[in-house]
From TrEMBL, chain A:
This is Electron transfer flavoprotein subunit alpha/FixB family protein. Keywords: Electron transport, FAD, Flavoprotein, Transport. Its cofactor is FAD. One of its GO terms (biological process) is fatty acid beta-oxidation using acyl-CoA dehydrogenase. FAD binds at residues 207, 232-233, 246-250, 263-270, 284. Residues 4-186 form the Electron transfer flavoprotein alpha/beta-subunit N-terminal domain. Heterodimer of an alpha and a beta subunit. PANTHER family: ELECTRON TRANSFER FLAVOPROTEIN ALPHA, ELECTRON TRANSFER FLAVOPROTEIN SUBUNIT ALPHA, MITOCHONDRIAL. It comes from Frankia nepalensis. Binds 1 FAD per dimer. It comes from the Bacteria.
From TrEMBL, chain B:
GO terms for cellular component: cytosol. The lineage of its organism: Bacteria, Bacillati, Actinomycetota, Actinomycetes, Frankiales. Belongs to the ETF beta-subunit/FixA family. The keyword Electron transport applies. Its cofactor is FAD. Heterodimer of an alpha and a beta subunit. The electron transfer flavoprotein serves as a specific electron acceptor for other dehydrogenases. It transfers the electrons to the main respiratory chain via ETF-ubiquinone oxidoreductase (ETF dehydrogenase). This is Electron transfer flavoprotein subunit beta. Residues 23-214 form the Electron transfer flavoprotein alpha/beta-subunit N-terminal domain. InterPro entries: ETF_a/b_N (IPR014730), ETF_b (IPR012255), ETF_beta_N (IPR033948), Rossmann-like_a/b/a_fold (IPR014729). SMART domains: ETF (SM00893).
Amino acid sequence: MAEVLVLVEHADGEPKKVTGELLTLARELGEPAAVFTGAPGTYAKAKAYLAEYGAAKVYVVESDDVAEYVGAPIAEVLAKLVGDAAPTAVLVAATADSREIAARTAAKTDSGLIWDAVAVTGDLVATQGVFGGSTIVQSKVTKGTPVIVVRPNSTAPVAAPGSPAEVTVDIAISDVAKSAKIVDRVAEAKSGRPDLTEAQVVVSGGRGLGAAEHFALVEKLADTLGAAVGASRAATDAGWYPHQNQVGQTGKTVSPQLYIAVGISGAIQHRAGMQTSKTIVAINKDPEAPIFEFADYGLVGDLFNVVPQLTDEIEKRKG
Amino acid sequence: MNIVVTVKQVPDTWAEKKLDAADKTVDRVSVDNVMNEMDEYGVEEALKIKEAHGGEVTVVTMGPAKAVETIRKALSMGADKAVHLTDDALHGSDALQTSAALAKVIASLSPDLVITASEASDARGGVMGALLAERLGLPQLTQARKVTVDPGAGKVAIERLADNGYSLVEASLPAVVGVVEKINQPRYPSFKGIMAAKKKPLTTLSAGDAGLDAGSVGLAAAASTVLDANPAPPRQSGTIVKDEGDGGTKIAGFLAAQKLI
């Protein structure tokens, strides 16, 4: 059975949940081969996880070259493996970094690229929601090795423990790929909350919060639910919450089990980033807010009363 | 500084976007079209860098004849000249083909800096900056929320958006910079700017003029194909409840009933 390459998504070696999702998907398409790229010493932290989720093989590149430059070196690794291993497909997660790497890999290997797939069948037909999820498209790569960018939360990760063969990839990264050097990484938020795009529950705040400090209400509710915190563009434009947390067009697309919109009107830009959420709950004082047109449960009321009560009630029910 | 900024005309965010029934490409005919919003930030950043360091800003777009409206907008904001790659043969090109075509045009302009937006609101691929860097063999400085150029030293640095903060990324010029929309506040074209735009040089290129191989462009040569496209089942509005002092408790009840808590 031909290999399906999965680019491992990780933070300093700790695999992200989407890696398990991609390996689960890859098992249905062929023989899952994980591709781990990271700084020296990081692979050890990923090893057990990749075995747990059924990687049959792990290609390992541990070097400063793949860790210290934007995108291009990892694309060189993937392109080399596409050439050497002739995989059925390459799967990467729909993160800002990895979609760029996927695109460069497709360009290097003269292959087709599909982004934001939410499902991929055995014959490599991908399903995508386009225009913010309002149109469902089935598409297929017709040239080269399909490079498919898959949305987090598209597949439930299922463990399939094995003992993968490890292959150290012998590659010298070209000078041209080492041209955009990461000289510093600055953490601005150390929230301990789940990643926005991976979270099962997202609580987002918008214009209705009125001020940056009122995001504390949203954060408290989020923490009660083990949720990630999102924000509408109105809130990030106002500087109330970091841009990294923006949900919607020009921000992140999320598809959690539960999305709670607090003080968000639900204009089309926001809707484009969250309307594929399984269940949507909206709290807004304006009964005419567009979000009520597509929320599963809408509460017309003052968020400053409703949100603390909801937080307390969830705490109470948790016992 | 010789700065190239790419722009794209897209269906208005407020328009009901759809795919053409026949060839399943983005319907650009039955909707209002505007400059991709994030491109306004790209144009603004190009103008700011020019104002700080001198030079010239060239707008480059690929798109149908009416995409000239988007070029006019960029020129009226203050860009100096424009190149419009337009040809029926280009219709239906995917991101890979588009990046190859744009790279060909951009390379002919020998820029010090190429600025692009991180995403267009129609396709939302978020890949064009990376692809242009790949095609042009230039450093990829995408997801930039801040750009610092030092033409004397031939250097450019950005703050690249990361999940929990940012990365400081440095490169030598020439380079490709991809901007996000928090980077600046785009200016509105002034009346004077709008009048001046009409006299600014605009070069229109066909695929052949740009040196593109006819067999490599357009829908028929795209590396992926849309097999089927259908409207998503519309989300139905659910239960709407007015708060009567127990709204939080009611939501908790709903979540519990759905086994979400």
